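Input:
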Amino acid sequence: MSSNDGGGLMSSAGLVRYFDAEDRNAITIDPKTIVAFGALFGVLVLVLNIVA
Amino acid sequence: MSWKDTAEPLLTRMPSVARPDRHVPFKRKLGWTAGVLVLFFFLRNINLYGLGTGGSNAFGRFSSILATQQGSILQLGIGPIVTASIVLQLLGGADLLGLDTQNNPRDQILYQGLQKLLVLVMIVLTGFPMVFAADFLPAEPVFGLGVAGTKWLMFAQIFVGGVLILYMDEVISKWGVGSGIGLFIIAGVSQSLVGGLIAIPQISGNWGFIPYWIGAVAGIVDAPSVLTGQGITQLMFHTSGQNYIGLIAILTTLSIFVIVVYAESVRVEIPLSHARVKGARGRFPVKLIYASVLPMILVRALQMNIQFLGRILKQQLGTLPAWLGQYSGSQPTGGLFYYMAPIQSPGEWAWFLGGVSQPAWKILTRVGVDLTFMIIGGAIFAIFWVETTDMGPEATAQQIQDSGMQIPGFRQSPGVLEKVLGRYIPQVTVIGGALVGLLAVMANMLGTIGGVTGTGLLLTVSITYKLYEEIAEEQLMEMHPMMRQMFG
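Output:
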């Protein structure tokens, strides 16, 4: 049961750690923006490869 | 004034993915995870614009664990994230950062900013030499930019690809299931693994395990009789290109699966009871693979960076002194860089297969160096990992204390908990780290299906197991919303 206490053990799952704390100054990005940007960027390079 | 105050304005302003402001339903989480995974595979298959022909693979056999794809936008894969993590582990393990990530929110923000900044630095540090200093990515001028201009254009694409990987990981960590990096590792390794099982030469140029042996039995493929010495060697160690399709390879692959799943269940359980709620009992498991297999990727990445350095030095200087490195093509054949190169396949040491041109003492030295590196490195990075991810005795004791649990028969104090945990955690960490290192080297020496390397297999199996546990927990909470309050 207690293996799930808090977030401490969960952090072993990833190389990069994210905490709940956030600074007021921080710039936040919507996850949709990232996926959309990635997809568009991919399509752009793909199109350039085909055209050229 | 400490470095924290100086760096704060920069580190606190590193852009980050927004957190969900309420609970994300499990189905939505799966949706985000699948979406990012599709994007990952999409980007992996797009070649850099301006890329010429004839580049040599920069990562070699490391490419599956680092989720890289030679010549694609994701040329760097998770390489920069892993390298940045090595730096953070070393700094954190030696306690040079002075950040209390467990209790202090400001330190947590600084830590997050620092890791992101380090990844950006590493993207430049690995991407720059890759494009400009070696023959990994030859340029073919586009837009009348000339070779130099095209190289800058390729560098820009690699840079964007590296940053995208970083943020895709963050999206999965915050909105999806598991961690993005874990997922990318599984994706890269599984692709090679499945390819190694079912490939046919008409499509991929190499034989996979299943088609080859069906063909051999049916008489379509020309295999020597197993009653001859050559036939037995082929049965055990046959290779087709980078694929190992002998029986030894499938046995090694299966053994790693079995050993990791078994080792996941080997644990010391510390009984706990609730201080006030009578009858509420639990156990704290100290698992044999306590620090997980992830520190292993750090050791491997360190080895890879050493090899990378060797090839760039060779490219820049023309010839290296004999004690430092002798190369034939892109493979080191002597000198320091040869001994530092990890054993990647049976063909690199097995004299009875006939493909070895080095004298026995050189091979033995190289195997010895690899074993030492992986076992000692595995143990050291496991210790650092436990320290920096707050899994050590002190941090764990505090977490258990905060949850209101105690060890029955002991006083309820973090000090007592820490002492009891301290009897197990450090020893288990060191043994687990060394064991995983040994396993990885053994698996590489025997060869694995699809050439995914021992480290790749270990990582994939243990990450998948963790993912399975996490999904099970998610579903439990989905079915019983009350559980969420208990688990927090």
